[in-house]
Amino acid sequence: MIRLRDPVTREAIIRSYTPISPPEKPGFLDVLVKIYFDTPTTTGGRMSQAMDALPIGHGVDFKGPIGKFEYLGRGLCAINGARRRVRTFAMICAGSGITPIFQVLRAVMTDAADPTACKVLNGNRMLEDILCKEELDALVRGNEGRAEVLYTLTKAPEGWKGLKGRIGADLVGRHCVRDEGTLVLVCGPEALEKAIRAALKEQGWPDEQVLFF
Q1: Count of C-beta atoms within a 10 Å radius of residue 52
Q2: To 10 degrees, the CA torsion angle through 79, 115, 19, 90?
Q3: pTM to 2 decimals?
């Protein structure tokens, strides 16, 4: 969690972020922040624009780690302290919601002895909006038997060979098959989470097999 003051109003702004720095490298904390600027029709992100306006060397307040999910390795995870085993992670995200998904995917794929399978459904507007794409593709290489990352774009360029359209009931139904050994991890904008919650409920997924970051 990060807290800073709006450079104009001096109001405190608090947002939760998932670090993307690897846990085996202590002493550093890398945070991925996508800046949402104001447009003629929409208001941008208060936190991201406030961070963009900060001078180099300016301090911000951190608190954490917080959250209810912890991946302990090799299919073992803890949710609110209760341990459970999974065979597959079905990961659904959009935009900067990739960060907690990326952390779990990396933890699984960098352990050659981890048998857990991961399938990521990653939605974005345009190709250049995909965050951590090189890193995601690198994690899949050599792990094709247990890892798959599917990208879907709402404004795909000519020649795009990936999926097209928003993540909704159709894509979830085709790429997120219900199984008792699967845990669905979801992170993204409120509209995405609302759509996914409805789609999974319609497909019969029980609440205990779905986790929203």
Answers
A1: 14
A2: -70
A3: 0.92
CA nearest 32: which of 80, 77, 93, 81? 93
Sign of CA dihedral 180, 201, 133, 135: negative
pLDDT-based confidence at 212, cuts 50/70/90? very high
Cα of 14 vs its chain's centroid, Å:
19
| Token pair of 60 as six digits | 């911000």
Per residue in 43-81, pLDDT (tens digit) is 999 999 999 988 898 889 999 888 899 999 999 999 999
Q: Answer yes or no: are the C-beta atoms of 183 and 211 closer than 8 Å.
A: yes
Q: Residue 49: how many CA atoms within 13 Å on its side-chain side? A: 12
Distances (CA, A) of 96 to 29, 50, 51, 86, 181: 17, 17, 15, 25, 27
Instruction: Show contacts of 24-30: CB within 8 Å, 24+ apart.
Output: 29/62
Return the residue matching tokens 């199984």.
Answer: 179
Type of residue numbered 149: V
Sheet of 88-94: strands edge to edge?
A: 163-164, 147-153, 117-124, 88-94, 182-187, 210-212
Q: Which two tokens stand for residue 106?
A: 């990396």
